[in-house]
Task: inverse folding
């Protein structure tokens, strides 16, 4: 299998390193100035690890699909693109089917923690009534661009302004994960309520990519609730901090299912945003190459496995 990696940041570099260590033929990671080499080579799989947004990767996906490559992308919106831009998602899905290739948005979150893992747990339930999935995450390993965009290192006023304007997004991908699970379950989500609250630093916190001063945002809490049949059906909570241990937080991933009996699964310490994301992506190459053509979600595919 030949893999080409577009995006020479953390995710692209880490996936390339894992695949090379397994003897996979990897080209890249390529930066912006080597776009053609990255996307147009006709490699079996092109990994697009650049941004979070469908609109910003659409042209790159089109180029790679037209060159005959399967496309794997870290863009959170691509995990379930139809609610972001139905026409664009349908157009790229049709193009992929026409060229006989597969497109998949994957990673840890979305792509695993709030969707694939949840579906696996639901497989051991008989009549699940509702779900609650929570993560407490160490944000210190993210790069500066991602940290600023998700809401770290801002004054409270700048945080509020950024959320209002859309420049600060918090972690992206919860609606995508919820719709992946709902689709697989044959449920229709009526609406998704969302909240985000900043966590203010009471002392300086030094992360790899930036230092958070006292009074600035050191993290945030996000809560998403998907409503089905007029009732909360899937609650997602994400608590992120650049220095969780210093403020008494322990990283963890939890899935609660309201069934008889209830299920409560905990992964502790929690999955690493960097290494676990890179692993899910590297472990997705085989299932992507073997998959039918079109734009798929992780619910359409077997689990990612480290081969
Ligand atoms: N689903 C998941 O679980 C998951 C996992 C990992 C990452 N992600 C997402 O994937 C993206 C990449 O993550 P990362 O950690 O690798 O970020 P990163 O370290 O900031 O690297 C991003 C790289 O992509 C380049 N880039 C940004 N926008 C681009 C564009 N429009 N066209 C071409 N190149 C572009 C950047 O170059 P410049 O420096 O020149 O801007 C940088 O080299 C982020 O949006 C992140 O949120 C999702």
Result:
């Amino acid at each position: 299998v030949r893999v080409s990696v577009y995006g020479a940041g953390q995710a692209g570099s880490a996936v390339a390193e894992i695949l090379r260590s397994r003897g996979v033929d990897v080209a890249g990671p390529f930066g912006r100035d080597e776009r053609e080499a990255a996307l147009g080579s006709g490699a079996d799989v092109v990994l697009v690890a650049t941004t979070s947004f469908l609109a910003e990767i659409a042209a790159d996906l089109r180029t790679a699909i037209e060159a005959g490559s399967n496309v794997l992308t870290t863009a959170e919106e691509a995990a379930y693109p139809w609610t972001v831009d139905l026409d664009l998602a349908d157009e790229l899905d049709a193009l992929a089917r026409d060229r006989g290739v597969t497109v998949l948005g994957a990673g840890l979150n979305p792509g695993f923690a709030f969707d694939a893992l949840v579906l696996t747990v639901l497989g051991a339930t008989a009549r699940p009534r509702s779900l609650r999935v929570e993560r407490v995450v160490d944000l210190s390993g993210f790069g500066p661009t991602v940290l600023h965009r998700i809401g770290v290192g801002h004054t409270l006023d700048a945080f509020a302004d950024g959320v209002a304007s859309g420049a600060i997004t918090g972690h992206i991908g919860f609606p995508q994960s919820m719709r992946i699970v709902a689709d697989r379950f044959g449920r229709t989500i009526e609406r998704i309520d969302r909240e985000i609250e900043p966590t203010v630093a009471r002392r300086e916190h030094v992360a790899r990519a930036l230092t958070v001063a006292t009074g600035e945002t050191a993290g945030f809490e996000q809560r998403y609730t998907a409503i089905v049949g007029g009732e909360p059906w899937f609650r997602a909570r994400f608590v992120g901090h650049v220095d969780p241990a210093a403020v008494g937080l322990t990283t963890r991933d939890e899935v609660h299912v309201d069934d008889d009996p209830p299920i409560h699964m905990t992964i502790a310490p929690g999955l690493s945003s960097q290494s676990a994301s890179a692993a899910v992506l590297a472990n997705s190459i085989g299932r992507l190459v073997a998959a039918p053509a079109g734009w798929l979600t992780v619910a359409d595919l077997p689990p990612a496995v480290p081969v």
In short: Residues 7-12, 31-32, 49-52, 56, 74, 76, 107-111, 143, 145-146, 173, 277 surround NAP (CB under 6 Å). The first helix runs from residue 10 to 21. The longest strand covers residues 217-228.
